[in-house]
Amino acid sequence: MTTYPRRDFLKHTALATGAALAPRWIRAATEAQPLPRHADSCILLWMGGAMGQTESFDPKRYTPFTPGMAPKDLLCTFPQIDTNVDGIKFCEGVENLAQLMDRGSLVRSYVARDYDAFGENLQHIPYQYKGHTGYTTPSNVPAPFLGAWISKALGPLNPDLPAYIEIGRSEKTHNVFLSLAAFQSSGCLGVEHGSLLIPLAERAGEIVKSLLPVGRFDNRQATFRKLAAASPAAQAGAGGESLLASMESAYRLMRSPSVEAFELAQEPKEVLEQYDTGPFGRGCLLARRLVENKARFVEVHVDFENAKGWDTHTDGHNGQAAMKKLIDRPVATLIRDLEARGLLDRTLVILATEFGRCSLGRGGNSWTKLEKENQYGVHGHFAGAASILMWGGGIQKGIVVGKTADEFPCQSVERPVSISDLHATIYNRLGIAPDFHVEIEHRPFHVTKDGLGKPIAEMIS
Asked: At 99, is the secondary structure helix, strand, or coil?
């Protein structure tokens, strides 16, 4: 068996992050008004690259390809299909998810920014950062990701599993993210709240089992404690304590029976086949296994790479069709599996993306006519609307929030939903108030911007 490099594991779990010792992130007491908790665990399914909303969950007028057609006449390249809720339609290609509309809610009016839906700087990485943190790209204070805030507020559900686990974000993507200063999942909260990163679900067991032997780990941990105790930086701030806590979390995982949750090979062949549409599908299966073992927060990525996957700048129709095939069956299987195991009611599942798409716009093309079939599709970035789905965790069932226009560019026209309100809804189901915060250099830093996020009332009432 090929071993996973230990150095890589330490890097991915952030155990070797020297920045954690920096004393400037001194965290004062955290304040919060606890809310009723409707979910114990959360799974975020991240559609990196900008999923086309009018090609998936918000169908518009279907227009087959005709040479010479104007881009603005093109709203949707797929026929509509029925869901199992009267009056709610999806696009062709998500037939399995269409039969689960009665288990969840759909937001059609997510607005990535409330100005200039087509304009400059509508780029993937800053808006993936915003989608995960609720804040624009970092300056002095790196914002924690959703999973890090949940780790800080609630801690692990299973003390032997990290509170925050990421699946499917490759090292290539990791390096792209790091092109932004301090684009780290734990942000200002310290390395103990960062993610355990599993780049490939099928290698998860190998990754966590290829750590140092326990005896050698003990020796290294003891050595680090001695160094930390002698370090002025460690004595001055919480960074050293955070790094030690992260090491201890890895130590508990190494010794725990919960490590078997990472072994996909233990699943029956027919279950593996049901999920296995590729790395993302296998990630969904791993997420289910982890939640069965009481993981607190798990994120599964459609790994982002420019002009690939959901980022359809050419041949958009075929590209979006391929991506729907990639996600439809495994996500639906995940929801049904959680339900069958009695876990869905206490597990919040979210399918989200950074912004939407349309036939023209930032990152699109300047075609005045569509002459070739590879010009047929949603090729432009669009901040004016995107679709988000949620299931389980006390979310209302069978409802649609918001509405978009039926003419180009299909902008949100009713009940626009901001990132702060979307995050407030997620936190609300987990019992975390939108004004939960830590103090950084004597200033509050909130889970939603300025603590003002408002849960989407229709989804939680």
From this structure: coil
Helices (H) then strands (E): counts for the chain: 14, 16
Residue written as token pair 């114990």: 40
How do beta strands 347-352 and 41-47 pair? parallel
Task: Assess contact for 370 and 68: CB atoms under 8 A.
Answer: yes
In a domain, 211, yes or no: yes
Task: Confirm whether 193 is domain-assigned.
Answer: yes
Nearest residue to 317 via CA among 277, 281, 363, 357: 357
Do the domain assignments include residue 1? no
pLDDT of residue 13: 47
Q: What is the DSSP string of 104-120?
A: EEEE--B-S-SS-TT-T
Can you list the alpha helix ranges (DSSP code H) found in 28-170?
A: 95-98, 124-133, 146-154
| Residue 335 near residue 391, CB atoms below 8 Å | yes
Give bridge partners of residue 297 from the DSSP assignment.
42, 164
Instruction: Output phi, psi for 300, to 5 deg.
Output: -115, 125
Tens of pLDDT, residues 72-124:
999 999 999 999 999 999 999 999 999 999 999 999 999 998 777 887 778 89
Calculate the dihedral angle through the C-alpha atoms of 27, 33, 36, 37, rounding to the nearest 10 degrees.
-10
* Residue 396 falls inside a structural domain: yes
Report whether pLDDT(450) > 80. Answer: yes
Q: Which domain does 282 fall in, by range?
A: 6-460
How many domains does the chain fold into?
Answer: 1
Q: What's the CATH code of the domain at 47?
A: 3.40.720
The residue among 312, 314, 306, 287 whose CA lies nearest residue 298 is: 287
